[in-house]
Amino acid sequence: MTMTTTRGTLPSLLTEGRAVFPDGFVWGAATASYQIEGAARDDGRGPSVWDTFSRTPGAVAQGHTGDVACDHYHRYAEDVRLMSELGLAAYRFSVAWPRIRPDGSGPVNPRGMDFYDRLVDELAAAGITPYVTLYHWDLPQALEDRGGWTARDTAYRFADYAAAVHARLGDRVRHWTTLNEPWVQAFLGYGSGVHAPGRRDAAASLVAAHHFLLAHGLAAQALREAGAPEIMLVVNTAPVLTPAQIADPAAEPDEADAEAADRVDCLLTRQILDPVLLGTYPATVLEIVERHAGLSHVHDDDLRTIHQPIELVGVNYYSPCVVRSSPGEPANPAYPGSEGIAFPAVEVPVTAMDWPVVPEALSRHLLRLSHDYPGAGLMVTENGAAFDDVVTAGEGAEHVHDDDRTAYLDSHLRAVHAALEGGADVRGYLVWSLLDNFEWAEGYARRFGIVHVDFATQRRLPKDSALWFREVAGRNGLA
């Protein structure tokens, strides 16, 4: 199928040479609570910032909300059977904080906890390993009303919540993720305002980013003390490249572009991973934070708390970040301190999200992370693409022939394999996403799933990409 959104044609890589992955490499899929669960008012669940944000006029495409989403809360058993049929060995899902503690603190809501108890048991019965993410952006609205992530207390409430979930599920769950993509909620939620809670305040975004890291450290301590054997932080770091480097990976940027790329890399990657894995903030980040927000929110022992041993870094990768020097350019609100830097489009194929498709950038990034942060292993915890899928009838059944998505996944898996051959310590690959879902500010207009969801009927239909992925996982390699 030809996508009108592309600036080129996605390459077909389905007939290239075979690539075998290491024994024990983990194959699975990922989802997030607000994007699939629905049941927004069932069994004592409290409102989240996304419930509030999605009702803000103009915030979400077509006024969509996650009230129903994929109705996974009621259809989880069907979805687990589908995972089993697709041969998935692992399922990464997130727990909805508002289901467990509807006001963000206080007593645990037993009915909300019961759902995840049932889900974990269903996965165990199907032989699928659960990877639990404790936070995927659905902050209880009650905590946002008290300052949200700009309030230091939210980090402590998160650690309490993490301990409560582990107390219930820790006997069956080994793999724990504290936060999903703290950069996104800090800077898209509090900086540019395009995500919940919709604030537009550079200082607030920088303070929130630090409190996210503090929350990670406090939760990692709580999980470790409770006996969690594997702890992970999932990040959306990406290689920061210039247009010249997109055209020629071996190209060296000029001095001005190199400075622009380094500054954005500090904001996107090192601001998050240096404190977590090295126990320090880059000087560039501290200068920007001090200029916009001051440093009073960074307490003396915070970096010691943030710098907890973790086993894995989860890498959510979709596309590189492309920048160039542009004197006089105002700062991008998602990147406080990015004055004089432009974020240009580049002439490569794009997805329906208008995100550039550059699979070799994933190899480059995985190798860089393994080199710069050798203490933790890596897992690709999200990778996938939105395209404008069409359901067609033929041969007595309906199909979704999503060749572009299959080509995208194939090329990025080859990039992962190239990184492994180069020495990157990559332990697994989780496709985003199992299901078409509520795609945040895009509502239901963008489809990332390898399984098509008819949101009117909730019927699930595996796409061609799902059947292809089943074969890849089954052979532990690419043909």
TrEMBL record:
One Pfam family recorded for the sequence: Glyco_hydro_1
PROSITE patterns (UniProt xref): GLYCOSYL_HYDROL_F1_2
Catalytic activity, EC: 3.2.1.21
Major enzyme class: hydrolase
Catalytic reactions of this protein: Hydrolysis of terminal, non-reducing beta-D-glucosyl residues with release of beta-D-glucose
Domain of life the protein comes from: Bacteria
Keyword tags: Carbohydrate metabolism, Cellulose degradation, Glycosidase, Hydrolase, Polysaccharide degradation
Keyword Hydrolase on entry: yes
Cited InterPro entries: GH (IPR017853), GH_1_N_CS (IPR033132), Glyco_hydro_1 (IPR001360), Glyco_hydro_1_beta-glucosidase (IPR017736)
Family the entry assigns: Belongs to the glycosyl hydrolase 1 family.
PANTHER family per UniProt: GLYCOSYL HYDROLASE (PTHR10353), LP05116P (PTHR10353:SF36)
Name by which UniProt lists this protein: Beta-glucosidase
Species: Microbispora corallina
